[in-house]
Structure formats: C-alpha cells, structure tokens
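Many groups now describe folds with learned vocabularies. In that spirit, our science desk offers one protein's residues alongside their backbone shape tokens.
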Amino acid sequence: MGLLDAMLGNASEVDVTEVAEELAPVLSNNESVLQAYKMVRDLYVFTSHRLMFIDKQGVTGKKIDYLSIPYKSITTFNVQTAGRFDTDCELSIWVSGRSDAIKVEIAAKLATDVQKSLANALFS
C-alpha cells in the first residue's frame, strides 16, 4: 500500500496467514482467522469466534488497542455507505450489555465485503 493510499484511508483485504501469525499470542487455542482487512495501520479481523478491531497507536505503532467482540454478543449492526465525495463508510455494532454502538470507519470499497463477512459470521 502506497503513501497516497494510506493518506486517503484506502483499505485492502490482508492475507489471513500473516494475520494469524501476528495474532497467535492473543488467539485462543481453537480459534482461526477467517478474514482480515487493513485500513492504514488498523486491522479488522474476523475469527472463528469473534470480531477484532486492532488499533495501532502512536508514531511507532507499538501501542496497540485490541477490541474483541464475540459474535454471540452482537445484537445489531449497521453499515452506512459513502456518498459521492466520501471516502469512508461507518460500521456501527450494537453489543449486548452496552447502550452505545461501537462505531468504526471502514473504506468505502470494503463496505460490502465487511458487511458480508459480518453477516456470514452471525448467521452461519
């Protein structure tokens, strides 16, 4: 991914083998990575048991925030697609036990893929 892509927030699907190796220390013994998407430095990872939002922070990216949402806790989700001049969409997920939705920006070109991955995880 080039500098211009990073500045524009463009995202892409990432090789699940690489992501599985990177996340091996935090995945459970019987958990596997199904799909992963990268947006600049952040990762959205669909595993066999949960959805993970991985936010690499700071200049070096060594500080990492892991948000794990078990699929069984997701009650509702919404994807708001981009308009004509927007580059990003918004994914909102409501989780049992929380009153506010978890909201993350996703690249417009990945909105359909992320929505399908989430639907597959919840409804399979």
Summary: The domain at 3-123 is CATH 2.30.29.50 (PH-domain like). The radius of gyration is 14 Å. Strands lie at 11-13, 33-39, 42-47, 50-57, 63-70, 74-80, 88-95, 102-107.
